[in-house]
């Protein structure tokens, strides 16, 4: 396998030549082999959306030149559309409050932007993961924001599944309405009650919470 040599504050590593990720992503993958699960696709999309917004803002503010900004934005659009997802290799569970995920995104975007500008992956004089892609950002800003965006993106699916759960509880309430059971003394209703009422209570609780 052909490699390229990349350096960080710790030292150097041999990165696969055709990889869009870089040395910090590779080091994170080696250090945090915890769950074996990769970043959720919607979380990747949220991360990259933030990077795109940052490039647009930094360019408008005059801190990032238009050529680099355009390449970064194009790279982000490609990832958002579904490309290069196999380059996000860090574990979903990691130390450093998400620094590894942030750098994984920075490096993939930078190397793709480099390529779009006619350079070779790993030549960070063209587009730098920290200086350009991560400009005016911090992991402490990016990761919580990406998390919130991901919740918003996934919320419609969650509501759909909760609706199905509610319907299932109400169906069981009808099915078991004729079954008598012992009262629940820990909840101070130590009288006979129907099993269906237990399921109905769960369904009503969901309905009240969803309205609030």
UniProtKB/TrEMBL annotation:
A GO term for molecular function: aspartate ammonia-lyase activity
- InterPro entries of this UniProt entry? Aspartate_Ammonia-Lyase, Fumarase/histidase_N, Fumarate_lyase_fam, Fumarate_lyase_N, L-Aspartase-like
Keywords of the record, alphabetical order, are: Lyase
Q: Which residues form the Fumarate lyase N-terminal domain?
A: 11-201
Q: Which GO terms describe its cellular component?
A: cytosol
Q: Which GO terms describe its biological process?
A: aspartate metabolic process
Keyword Lyase on entry: yes
Is Lyase found in the keyword set?
Answer: yes
The name this protein goes by in its record:
Aspartate ammonia-lyase
């Amino acid at each position: 396998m052909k490699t390229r040599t990349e350096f960080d504050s710790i030292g150097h590593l041999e990165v696969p030549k055709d990889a869009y990720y870089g040395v910090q992503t590779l080091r994170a993958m080696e250090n945090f082999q915890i769950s074996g699960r990769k970043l959720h696709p919607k979380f990747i999309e949220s991360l990259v959306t933030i990077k795109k917004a940052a490039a647009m803002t930094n360019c408008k503010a005059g801190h990032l030149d238009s050529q680099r900004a355009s390449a970064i934005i194009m790279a982000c659009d490609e990832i958002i559309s579904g490309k290069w997802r196999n380059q996000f290799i860090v574990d979903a569970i990691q130390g450093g409050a998400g620094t590894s995920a942030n750098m994984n995104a920075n490096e993939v975007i930078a190397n793709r932007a480099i390529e779009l500008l006619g350079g070779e992956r790993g030549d960070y004089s063209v587009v730098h993961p920290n200086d350009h892609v991560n400009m005016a950002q911090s992991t402490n800003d990016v990761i919580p924001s990406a998390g919130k965006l991901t919740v918003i993106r996934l919320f419609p699916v969650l509501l759909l599944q909760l609706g199905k759960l509610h319907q299932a509880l109400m169906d069981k309430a009808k099915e078991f309405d004729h079954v008598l059971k012992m009262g629940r003394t820990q909840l101070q209703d130590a009288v006979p009650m129907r099993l269906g009422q237990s399921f109905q209570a769960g369904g009503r609780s969901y309905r009240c919470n969803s309205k609030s």
